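Researcher: Let's continue the batch. This sequence belongs to histidine kinase, and it's 321 residues. Same format as the previous ones, please.
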Amino acid sequence: MSSQTEHPVSGLSNRKQFIIAVGVFIFLSVVLIEIETFETVYEFSRTHEDWELDELIMAALSALITSAFTFAFNAYYQAQALKKEMTYRLKLERELAHAQKIQSLGTLAGGVAHSANNYLQPIMTLSRLAQKQLPSDSPLQPFMEKILLAANNAHNVLGELLRFSRQEPLAETEVYDLQKELDQHQLLYRAALSMQSKLSFDLTDQPCPVALSSSQIADITLALITNAEDSYNSQGGVIQVRLEQKGKMALLSVTDQGSGIAAHQIERLFEPFYTTKAVGEGTGLGLSIVHGLVQGVGGHVEVSSELDKGTTFSLHIPLAL
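Model: Same format as before. Here are the structure tokens for histidine kinase:
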């Protein structure tokens, strides 16, 4: 994130600005009293009573006081207007920087997706050939199916990245059963974790049709479980994946008992490129992608966490009924 220089006026609170203006007025009043200005004026007016100076002086003092207060409030409101203008300008600058970063990401993603697809094609082709040459009852057949499934999911994700980089409309998403996808791909998810981590599934028996593709469901689940594993700081631990149906929503939650997340960090978790991990250990895109996919189908993500006790990500996804 590029640093922004805050305007000096924006650092002053409304109360401070008003106190400064009133303080100047009180200071001037005290000075006038200390030098006996009012007594001098009174004696002078008594000496020249025929000039009707009382009325003139009272009018002048009234005008002076009114002008002072007018100046104070005018300065206050001008400072307020300037503060709002600077805040609005800083907001626009941040939004512009964010848009430029996303545009650069799209260009980079297009190049990466194109190159990765070239490497992926022989993996898919050779895996299909190997699967055909194996006997149908070979114990390696289930593993070959998982390899092909992972390769196809990667191919679909890369295709979406290419369409995004070219600003083409994304392919229409079919409806998939979230319960079935999670249940069938448990082996794939367990293979993504280290030996020290234990993945537990608690899935409803009811079908949960959602407007997410199979590869998108895999992206969401893998991002959440790998993020949960990272919270154990390479020590490994239990990660629970739970799916239940609540009314017209599917509730997918991933819970760990790791290091937890500080409250001020939770607010920024879904920002692109934001990460709480050390340099070189994370891109800050996984949770941003999860948030974008869930929000894209009308859902939302909730995070509850406590330091040194664990974190739960709860995804509320509308059912495609």
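Researcher: Any comment?
Model: Residues 176-318 form a domain with the Heat Shock Protein 90 fold (CATH 3.30.565.10).
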